[in-house]
Amino acid sequence: MRISDVQTHIVGTEWRNLTFVRVLTDEGLEGIGEVRMLNHTDALLGYFAEAVPNHILGHDPFEIESLVQKMFRNDYARAGEIAMSALATIEMACWDIKGKALGLPVYKLLGGAAHSRIKAYANGWYTVERTPEQFAAAARRVVEKGYRALKFDPFGAGFYELERAEKIRSLDLVEAVRAAVGPEVEILIEMHGRFNPITAIEIARELERFQPSWLEEPVPPENLAALKKAAEKINLPIATGERIHTRYDYRELLESQAADYLQPDISHFGGILETKKLAAWAENYYVLMAPHNVGGSVSTAAALHFAASTPNFKIQEHFNDFADEWVKAVAPGNPEVVDGYFALPDKPGLGVTFDPEVASAHPRQQVFFNLFTENWHRRQALRETH
Predict the structure, then answer these.
(1) Nearest to 185 by CA among 158, 150, 152, 135
(2) Distance (Å, rounded) from C-alpha 128 to C-alpha 121?
(3) How many CA atoms lie within 13 A of 49 on its CB side?
(4) Which residues does the annotation mark as catalytic?
(5) C-alpha 263: how far from its chain's center?
(6) What is the mean pLDDT of the chain?
(7) How far is the C-alpha of 201 from the C-alpha of 218, rounded, in Å?
(8) Residue 167 backbone dihedrals phi, psi, to 5 degrees
């Protein structure tokens, strides 16, 4: 079996463009990968224009490791977000092909189930006015939907510091959500790398009374010494890693022991197997895995197979119950969240089937997503302006 073609399909919403990558073979089997590029979709397509004829066409999709090595090494460049995202979509699709050919779910090819079900948390649910009343009402809807954990960023457009009034407002939002969902539901606080260390430490101290399960990206990701400085004085678990794109770039983070949970995005990290390698390394430090996932059904499927087969998996992020519900119809087949958990996937391959007709009904949108503008959390009409 050989890869005979690679096709891209971009599905657009008001706040994100999802790139679906179909890998076709000369025996009629095909696989699907997916990535949400944050404002870099054209760069991804440009990479494919050169990589597909030079690295991918003619390769045996069963030989995943050699394909990954060829794509990673042969460009003779330091791999970053673009290359690792392209690689991830091809890698996912190859696992999909392999699972379909063998009649097995991908996780069974990765060592089998390490868990009987997969814990989930909701994101994208707080597209409401930034008031305690509306955040509380939205949080209650998450619990009614069947989730037992939810994540949110209460900090508006904050960067480095917060004015005192804005800090109080942010804490009021967290207090309202905690009161709305009760003590048994997990809340996860997203900071999006907004703060300098001293501000992150100060805010973390105020958040302790709400017992969040983690603080995510308390400082910008470029300076791991700053994260270590913050982590040493923060008495809450730290999660980070969605903007780290290779195993090699995780070395300093693991050795500094500045994080309790790692959040690689499988679709930006070279795929499922590369993320499994990171998980095995992290287990030596007793660090758990909680993959970032802001994509559609295919990215979610890849994350579920990773989670099912990974002993030190903690919890899986999921957007699509609260944003762009039709996105599920582009590649249906994933289990739904019930009582806070996904069931294990049970279909061959990734278990989802790409529908090009649904995809074509939602063409690419000209959006530019910016987390540092007012009301970014509404995720509405974030059109690019010049």
Answers:
(1) 150
(2) 19
(3) 6
(4) 192, 292
(5) 8
(6) 96
(7) 8
(8) -65, -45
Give kind and range of the element (H or E) at residue 122.
strand 117-122
Q: Which pLDDT does position 385 carry in this prediction?
A: 39
In the predicted model, is pLDDT for residue 166 greater than 90? yes
Question: ∠ at Cα 40 (2, 121), nearest 5°?
Answer: 85
Spell out the CATH class of 108-348.
alpha beta
The model's pTM is 0.96
Is a pLDDT exceeding 60 seen at residue 55? yes
Would you kindly state where each structural domain of the chain is located, as residue ranges? 3-104, 108-348
Whether residue 362 contacts residue 378, with contact meaning beta carbons closer than 8 Å, is answered with: no
Q: Is 60 exceeded by the pLDDT of residue 196?
A: yes
Phi and psi at residue 316, to the nearest 5°: -115, 130
Instruction: Give the DSSP per-residue string, 125-193.
Output: ---S-SSHHHHHHHHHHHHHTT-SEEEE---TT-BBB--HHHHHHHHHHHHHHHHHH-SSSEEEEE-TT
CA distance 294 to 355: 20
What is the torsion angle, in degrees rounded to the nearest 10, for the CA atoms of residue 294, residue 321, residue 357 and residue 23?
40
Q: Which CATH architecture group holds 3-104?
A: 2-Layer Sandwich (3.30)
* Within this chain, domains 3-104 and 108-348 share the same CATH topology: no
